[in-house]
Predict the structure.
Amino acid sequence: MRGLLFCWLLAAFPAVSLAEDVCTSGGLMDGPLGLSFFEGDSGCPRRVCPRTEVTLDGSVMGIDVADDLFTQSGDFYATIAGGGGFSGSWKFSERGELFASFQVLNVRFVQNATITGTRTGIGWFSAGATYQGFRAGNLALAMTARLTLPTAFGYYEHAWPLAADFGVLAGYRPLEWLGLHGQLGVVSSLAMSKANPNARAGLQIISGVEFMPLEWLGVVLDLGVQLGYAAPVDMLHLGAGFRFRIWRGLGVEIGAMLPCAGETKADLAAALRIGYRFDY
């Protein structure tokens, strides 16, 4: 009798039923929030599930925006950067996707006690791929790699920086309305110039959870740490965002990330994304 009652409850209330496939987010964007404190798309975590999608992206990042602003010590320094562009991915198989992004507009404002400057121009181009090496029901593991090119012409002088990041991704969906994700990866960069290339590499660890209480609504919470890129502990950061399905495969994501510990000088990273999923 109890077994029959339990089966009836699962049929009557699909929100509490067990998930059969890790890639069942429908028209909602999925995976971790695509945010980082690097230029362009570099260092942004990826999702484990491939999809064919195009998005319009807008982002803003602040560094030392309020350091000593009210102390009148003369040490005030601020950098605010933002821009907009587009990105896309192509699901070339059930397990893999190719992806790319291009920041069409990058605006950067810099101020200290004596100098103010603004730079406007195109930003960075990134391209990469993700492929699932393991997938069984509501669990999937994948590998991802991305290269970021120095296409922000006019921004550099006598040096052309390149960035590359790669990692291992995990996705697990124990319930239809609940998903877990994680990424263990490395982000690296170097500058092509006559001087020291200033090569760097750091470890990134990101874990998070997605709640989908309604078919058209998702809530994302991420926790991440970056180690060894510029300091033993670069940063420990928290991210939060909301996802909405507007119509069929059309979705919106708004999210923000704040560092809460570490040697980073960053204050805030936030982004708004509007995307359409073709394989919905």
